Amino acid sequence: MFRRPFSSSFRDLSGKKIFVTGAASGIGRSCALLAASEGASVFLTDRNTDELAATAAEIRASGGSVPFTEAVDISDYPAVAALATRLTAAHGAMDVVMNVAGISSWGTVQSLEHDQWRKLVDVNLMGPIHVIEELIPPMIESGRPGHLVNVSSAAGIIGMPWHAAYSASKFGLRGVSEVLRFDLRRHRIGVSLVCPGGVDTGLTETIDIAGVDKSTPSFERAHAHFRKRAVSPDVAASAILDGVRRNKYWVYTSNDIRFIHFLQRHCSPAYVVAMRVMNAGANKALPAVGRARRTGGTA
Prior knowledge:
Elements: E1 17-20, H1 26-37, E2 41-46, H2 49-61, E3 65-71, H3 77-91, E4 96-99, E5 105-107, H4 114-142, E6 146-151, H5 164-183, E7 189-195, H6 203-206, E8 208-210, H7 217-229, H8 233-245, E9 250-252, H9 255-266, H10 268-283, H11 288-291
Parallel strand pairs: 1-2, 1-4, 2-3, 4-6, 5-8, 6-7, 7-9
Helix pairs in contact: 1-2, 1-8, 3-4, 4-5, 9-10
């Protein structure tokens, strides 16, 4: 039986150095606030300078430690590399690296533009890879136990309607995590793959859904159903930090995703039926003009 010789090292986050991307809002902000409240020193980045500063100020006002903040677009590799060089030179290797930052854009293949596919992959997949490239090697070299958190999505597990482009990025991050889960074990670095379902962040109001009129009654009903089932960013952050402390690989933020993943793995026919029902329901919100795009119609 294999033991996890480093699993107990993070039961107490006090004094740990935790790097968080996407710290200006949503799950990233909640992770930063919660980790700081438990005594961790948090090192924060986001592309939104003002909101990032507000997060840092709130943590410091409550007595938390924020030794480093810097705004960066994680899809910009040279910028991430420069940030990592400054961070490591000034503060040494991190104990925990949390890849939380991401964007979302949905749509059918008739509706999505090439730039949307590209941007999702650049931010949601290449962004975390840039962070991993630059911050995990110093963790290995430090010889200390560590932990890597990659926030994927339910769309990194199951075939959700309109999520082909988004899933391309999130399944990719899942693949990276699956390999590193084993590659990094010998260095005493754990890996958590977080697969949130609905999380009620600001994205739920502004999300880009190509080819869908968000003012229609059918979409508004679907959105209201989503909001009803969604957990708060604070609940998601609590699940993530619990995953770090317990060295859990699969981290779910809600039981519905845990259940559908169970069906997918252990009862494939039920999973297929569930996905077909979900797809049929979602497609009721698609206007006929959107379905006709690139087949001779207009959108």
